[in-house]
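Schema walk-through. Below, the input block comes first and the output block second. Nothing else is stored per chain. Lengths vary across the set, and this one has 324 residues.
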Amino acid sequence: MKRSHQIFPGILSLAALAAGFCIWSAFGNEVNLCVTSGCALFQDTSIAGISLWWAGGVTFAALAAAALMGAAQLGMVLAGFALLGDIALLLLMSVTAPCVSCLIVACFFAMIYCGFRQVAHRTRSGLPNDKPGRSLLLIIWGLLFIVNVGTALRTQADVWAITENGTEATVRMFFSPSCPSCQEGIALLSGRVDVAFYPLAESEIDIYKTARMLRLMDNGASVAEALAKAQDVAAPSAMAATAPDMLLLRLRMLRNKAHVFMAGSQTVPFFEYHGLPTMLKKSASQQAGHAVAPTAPASSATGSADLPLDPQVAGQCAGVTPCQ
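--- output ---
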């Protein structure tokens, strides 16, 4: 029996695969394809009570039906509206957090739209090898897609700790080896608080000091000891300064500095807390104890291992700005 219409197998396969992926994601698949925070952010997002994944699955099913019926013009219009909605989602992700699974779906929308657009154009022109012109919709989509891919790659460039407790420490301290306030903070914190230290370079000499710290720590020195001994380091030769390990160190310290800048700060030391710091809880308990028993003797400054709860800034450095 002769078919009365044409089927677009390529577009049909893409739409069916994309619909299956959306339905699979809607049920909460156990395979973690996403490595960015945007996946958790958009996993349960819904519009008018309808999950984005189910909406995507229905849309791809409709596109598959259009491909099965050979309705190129209808498929192009439907895919165009879907791509327009995806542009809105890409714009939202660009100012929040990218979702890798959403980017996969975005690729399906773009490929299906391109397929329908090409078939519809050839049908109108009657030339089998004729190609359509540029699409403003695809250009906007492409720019936003590149922005989101770049953001996703950047988020995977994690910060680098000079100590080995970077993954489990509840406190992060970003410091410059030349900053006196950072040196004082490391001397107070090293070995006494669950803190990981992240070096960054405020000047060229900071890179050489950090390299010296790494060598000293490999020989058993603590962070505070290594930092103190690295202050008089001399600049290496041009060949040593461009060695692969030094270039990698520069990249790591640049990532740390970018992290601080992205957090809205341009000064060091810079602290990040994961959870409620113990020192705050202990300080609150001590204040409550003093309120009940005001005559209780205060602990000496040298005998207490707890940090004081003081909102004032004792000192900071920012590039060429003198330390305060």
